[in-house]
Design a protein that fits this description.
The structure is a homodimer of 460-residue chains. Chain A contains 16 helices and twelve strands. The first copy, chain A, is α/β, with parallel strands linked by helices.
């Protein structure tokens, strides 16, 4: 994967028909290759950052009329020579141009290979490269905000700050080692304690942000469960209805939208399809429905337990079963919302004979209190950490590395507590620096890069 | 629709996630609008055909890091100022940038509105504009070739030639009218006959090409029909198998491919799904299957009638039914191929007691003679007109107008035969010129333009 001597090519726009389709080439031969199929102008003689209209020719045959964008390295996305061919957006035409370039020596790019080259050429560090993939995948305001923050180097700056302070101290301690015979202390231990404390706090704050970051990046899986006729499908529709309209307000953007997705205050909630449950409970025995609910619940981050207020008041059995469910949620540490439906036909707010706290009363049918339910969902997930200022960790890889950073910082502290010699403390400092460097990619392995970039889309 | 004083905007790349998504603006305010959200560089002061890296900002908030392509009119696709913003390919990001531009005064473009403006600004004529839509929709080599030919003005040139010759003659005849008292003939009637003959031939040749053109543009619907167990589904799979592999040889391009499509020598054959027929005939009475076959046949351009060679030899009833079918095809003027299956277990090449001509023997199971079947399909449709040199009419609109051209040319000829006065002949010449001009758009109405461009995709 780390071969950067050849010229890579890919279709950079989404698949399908459109007004424009873009083919991107990067590498030492990018200009030479396009020159061979774009007669009438010598691109090598043109200045960088210019646009050129003309024809793509396969011998005598015109394949397309295109605009070529010319970026000469190092002033390009990858740092290499980059040529983009803006074709008519037909899959057929794009394939023809792609194959033509490949016949002239370009190689099909692997996922993320353009961005990998940008990283290898020092155009961006690893957190910025990863932010590119996050930005493309962003479906909500908060995911977008976090990705842009990281793309612009926000996270890298945090880490660089930490790293620099550690390096400084490390230098002083290593200086002590050179003078170890003389028992001097260049590094002020009190200040060092303060620094370790400060860095640990900073790292832990970043670690803490991952809870929200993970939610921002991957969305929240929500299962709506409850007995047949509790109104689950009506609630599903009530939750989705308005949202659908927002999603489809701009023509041509909805084709790839994921179904049954709710955006609440910029966080994506994915409603696990429990429609099957509903349909089945009508056809077959209830037991089967309950089993399916359990399955849906086990996959969910949050469960909305919906019950019929009227039924729950009439029947002690129903009411008891709600209490049992709540007990199970608590026992299994499942986040849940207890929602009483059909508030339009019932003025009762507690199930018979049981006092269950925090019931949200709604009418799915009349769309009453749906907004409150959304707020409750959001608050359950965001838990007050929503002041989305500064860096939010959205990557499990970063989370793992930061855990190692905190661990080694604690080792440093322990070492100082036990008055360990400077060379041993220095080792722990290096461990900290190693993991900080691993996040930004200053320290990395080919396997790790392979893994990170394989999750990109082709053409980026 | 013909308002060209405002600035239009659209997402020009296909919907979905990709490395790049492009937003296109065209109009007098295109540069002003982008300047407001792209700080750090005054685009108005930059030369045309240049690329600019920077940030799209909504106030203080960075929306994306982008590359802006600048085209100053009239050297642009539309002839107006055009700005393209190449964003990270997230639907969310594209919508943000789109809405931001709209807040600053851009209006959402209607389908084809960019190309409409190019037409209105004289950047292309109507046949070229229509070729843009054809090119984007092209899925096969021949559709692509026809679209490129027309995009480059091939068809326009043909028409221009015809028009010029008619105009010349028309001028001479109108000159005669000025000297009508003197009974002179400036226009040589013999030469005029020759010209009308020549133009009629040319127009009729174009009309004739529409048969193939229609096939090239819209593909050929093929129904595979026959009795249960004739091997229809096996044949369907045999026909599709290889093709599927070809379609999917480049990653990322197959998502939108239409299922059950065969490309034979650059022409698209769409296999009408008769799987339903097959499944049903196994479950229910045969009569129902036959009815469904009839329905599929009525929608098809070509019918493959498949029968079991072994059965047809054993049973006079089966053999007779084949003969009946063939008779019906001939009666209804349906193009058909008679295909005997299971040639692997039968050496018999004619049904019992009946001589039916032109049976193609295959073994769907062993994929024997499938290639011959494809050739037969192709020849049935192309009928020797496949020398795809010169112009091929692919548009029903052009076909209709050319019919009117031929009709008026015949009227001219009739008028001369009957020695009609020059002013009446001149009227017919004008009718010819009118319809020729309508094809290229020299003569058109707003309604007609609306109709033509509404079939485009948004962003083109």
């Amino acid at each position: 994967m780390l071969n950067v001597n050849d010229t890579i090519i890919a279709i950079a726009t989404p698949p399908g028909e459109g007004a424009i389709g873009v083919i991107r080439l990067s590498g030492t031969d990018a200009i030479t290759i396009v020159n061979k199929i774009f007669p009438g102008k010598n691109l090598a003689a043109q200045p960088t950052h210019t646009l050129h209209f003309g024809r793509i020719k396969d011998g005598d045959v015109t394949v397309d009329e295109v605009v070529v964008s010319l970026y000469k390295g190092p002033k390009s996305y990858t740092g290499e020579d980059v040529v983009e061919i803006s074709c008519h957006g037909s899959v057929y035409v794009l394939k023809q141009v792609l194959q033509l370039c490949m016949r002239h020596g370009a190689r099909m790019a692997k996922p993320g290979e353009f961005t990998l080259r940008a990283f290898l050429k020092g155009k961006m560090d690893l957190t910025q490269a990863e932010a590119v993939a996050d930005l493309i995948a962003s479906q909500s305001g908060s995911a977008h905000k976090a990705a842009i923050h990281n793309l612009r180097g926000g996270f890298s700056d945090d880490l660089k700050g930490m790293r620099e302070q550690l390096v400084q101290f490390s230098a002083l301690i290593e200086l002590e080692l050179d003078f170890s015979q003389e028992d001097v202390e260049f590094a002020d231990r009190t200040k060092f304690y303060e620094l370790i404390e400060k860095l640990t706090n900073a790292a832990q704050q970043l670690l803490h942000s991952f809870k929200l970051g993970n939610v921002i990046k991957n969305g929240v899986k929500v299962a709506i469960v409850g007995k047949p006729n509790a109104g689950k499908s009506t609630l599903l529709n009530a939750l989705l209805n308005e949202e659908r309209a927002i999603v489809s307000d701009i023509a041509g953007t909805t084709r790839d939208t994921i179904e049954e997705t709710l955006n609440i205050n910029g966080i994506i909630f994915r409603l696990i399809d429990t429609a099957g449950i509903r349909e089945h409970t009508q056809d077959t025995i209830e037991q089967q429905g309950i089993e399916r609910s359990r399955e849906a619940m086990s996959k969910a981050d949050v469960v909305i337990y919906l019950f019929d207020l009227v039924e729950s008041h009439k029947s002690k059995v129903v009411s008891d079963s709600i209490k049992e469910e709540v007990a199970k949620f608590k026992e299994r540490d499942i986040k849940y919302l207890l929602v009483g439906n059909k508030a339009d036909v019932s003025s009762i707010d507690t199930p018979a004979g049981n006092s269950v706290e925090n019931i949200l009363l709604i009418s799915a049918k009349n769309k009453e209190n749906i907004h409150q339910l959304k707020d409750a969902l959001y608050n359950l997930v965001a838990e007050g950490q929503v002041k989305q200022e500064g860096t939010i960790i959205t990557s499990a890889r970063h989370f793992g590395a930061l855990q190692e950073v905190v661990r080694s910082l604690q080792d440093i502290k322990k070492g100082m507590d036990n008055n360990l010699p400077g060379d041993l403390i220095s080792l722990d400092i290096r461990t900290s620096l190693y993991y900080l460097g691993e996040i930004t990619g200053e320290i990395t392995t080919e396997d790790k890069l392979d893994y990170i970039f394989s999750k990109f889309c082709i053409g980026k």
